[in-house]
């Protein structure tokens, strides 16, 4: 499993390069341009995949050096193997525009990465793992927690499942669902900085994109994204403070 996790970590940046070079088909940016939504982020926001992939490789190398892994690391390895493999698969499937399959894959990858981040982060049930576990896995999980809703919106527009000339009502529902997921995870992970950072980065990217968009309802969507980013940051600070206070009380 050690070698498999490392190989899958190394595969993600390679597949990402192939996908964004156009060798596999239209790039993610080109596909996003074909199906504009009110919850898509500005192009620069997706550059976060660079640090995510780099840190996932760091995780892959570090975990490969641990021969006698404890039960938690063994579970993290299994989850990250699934999450990394599904991330690479999603990039290929999305480029091929198999949108329903891509949607199922990204939700499955989120489940894997959230599970791994949970095991590596400080919670009420266990202490935080080393930085090379909690930082990469939390950052990856935080970004995908928002990306799944961007993916849902693109499926809705691609197949015209809901009105595409009046997207604001159903987009607000997606914002609400995204907000619930992000806030619940941030609180349960005791204000995890890296999870929060990735999610806030994505929401600010949504704000930037929609603030400059001419789509009906874009201004409102931008304001909602900005408000959610602020709310998430405040919730993370509060949860982090409460977690720190509990640790001090237990230590005393």
Automatic annotation (TrEMBL):
Q: Where are the bilayer-spanning segments?
A: 39-64, 76-93, 99-120, 141-162, 168-186, 193-212, 224-244
Q: Does the keyword Transmembrane helix apply?
A: yes
Going by the entry's taxonomy, the superkingdom of the source organism is recorded as Bacteria
Write the protein's name.
Answer: TspO/MBR related protein
Q: Does the keyword Transmembrane apply?
A: yes
Residues folding into a coiled coil are none
What UniProt keywords apply to this chain's record, in alphabetical order?
Membrane, Transmembrane, Transmembrane helix
PANTHER family named in the record: SI:CH211-161H7.5-RELATED, XK-RELATED PROTEIN
